[in-house]
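Duplicate of #3305? Posting structure anyway:
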C-alpha cells in the first residue's frame, strides 16, 4: 500500500489545505497526518471525513517549537515500523508542499533503490543557510561536505524499513540541537556513510520527482545569493496552473517551498482554498 505521511504542530487546516487537497487530487495513497499537539485542533477533525488518517501523537514539550523538528522523525518511525517492506511511504513537509502528479507512479517507474532522496541542486559551499547549519552543528564535517550537493530533508521516499534507519539517525542527531532545522544538516552528515547510501538513490529537479523552490525558484534569494550561477539543473517556472522544469518542460510531481515565491504562494493558496 502507498502512504503519504505528514506531521503538524500548532497548525490549523487552512495552513495545510494545499498539501491536503493536491494530495487528494493527484496521489494514489492513504494520507496519514501525525498531529503533535496536546489536543487535535477541531479544524483537523473534519479531515477524517475525507479518508485521512489522523494519528494523535503529542510531543513532550509545548514551549520549544523546535521539538517538532526532531520529534516528528521519532513519531514517523514508530508508524513505519507497523508497515511491511512491500509498502511505499512518502514523508514530506506539509505547509509548503503541493502535488501536481502522482509521485507513487513515478517511484514505480524510476526507483532503482529502496530510498529516494532529493538534491537541492547546489553544493554546500555555495548555499549560505546549509553551510552555516553544518558549521553550527557538525563543524568537523564542513570540509568533507563542501563540494557535495545539499540533500533536502523535507522529502523522504521509499520502503519503510530502510527509511526507519534514516529517521533514527536524524532523531538521535537532532534531539539536543537548537537549530531551527537541525534535521537537514544531520541528514547530510549521515549520507557520508556508505552504510546508508548503498541503498539510497539521489535525484534532482531534472528527474521530474521534485523541486525545492527555496533554492531554485525565481525569488530574490535566487539572484541575491548568486544561485543563478550555481544551480546545476533545470529551474522551475510557472506555466498555466503548473510548475514545470524550464529545461525539460516536465511537470514536477512535488513542489516544495512553493510559497517562497510570493506569486506562486498566493496562486496555489487561492487554487486550493476555494
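Output from current build:
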Amino acid at each position: 500500500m502507498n502512504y503519504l505521511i505528514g506531521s503538524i504542530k500548532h497548525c490549523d487546516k487552512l495552513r495545510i489545505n494545499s498539501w491536503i487537497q493536491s494530495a487528494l487530487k493527484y496521489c494514489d495513497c492513504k494520507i496519514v497526518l501525525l498531529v503533535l499537539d496536546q489536543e487535535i485542533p477541531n479544524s483537523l477533525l473534519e479531515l477524517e471525513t475525507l479518508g485521512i488518517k489522523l494519528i494523535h501523537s503529542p510531543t513532550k514539550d509545548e514551549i520549544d517549537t523546535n521539538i517538532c523538528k526532531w520529534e516528528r522523525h521519532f513519531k514517523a518511525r514508530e508508524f513505519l515500523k507497523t508497515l511491511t517492506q512491500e509498502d511505499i511511504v512518502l514523508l514530506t513537509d506539509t505547509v509548503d508542499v503541493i502535488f501536481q502528479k502522482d509521485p507513487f507512479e513515478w517511484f514505480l517507474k524510476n526507483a532503482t533503490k529502496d530510498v529516494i532522496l532529493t538534491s537541492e541542486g547546489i553544493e554546500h559551499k555555495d548555499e549560505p543557510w546549509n553551510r552555516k547549519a553544518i558549521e553550527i552543528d557538525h563543524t568537523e564535517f564542513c570540509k568533507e561536505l563542501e563540494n557535495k550537493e545539499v540533500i533536502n530533508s523535507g522529502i523522504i521516499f521509499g520502503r519503510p524499513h530502510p527509511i526507519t534507519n534514516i529517521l533514527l539517525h536524524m532523531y538521535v542527531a537532532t534531539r539536543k540541537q537548537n537549530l531551527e532545522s537541525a534535521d537537514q544538516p544531520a541528514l547530510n552528515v549521515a549520507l557520508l556513510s556508505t552504510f546508508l547510501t548503498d541503498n539510497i538513490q539521489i535525484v534532482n529537479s531534472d528527474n521530474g520527482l521534485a523541486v525545492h523552490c527555496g533554492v531554485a525558484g525565481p525569488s530574490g534569494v535566487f539572484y541575491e545569493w548568486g544561485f543563478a550561477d550555481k544551480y546545476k539543473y533545470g529551474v522551475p517556472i510557472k506555466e498555466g496552473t503548473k510548475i514545470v522544469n524550464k529545461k525539460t518542460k516536465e511537470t514536477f510531481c512535488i513542489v516544495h517551498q512553493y510559497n517562497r515565491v510570493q506569486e506562486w504562494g498566493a496562486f496555489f493558496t487561492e487554487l486550493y482554498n476555494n
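Confirmed duplicate; merging threads. The first helix runs from residue 13 to 26. The two ends are 30 Å apart (CA to CA).
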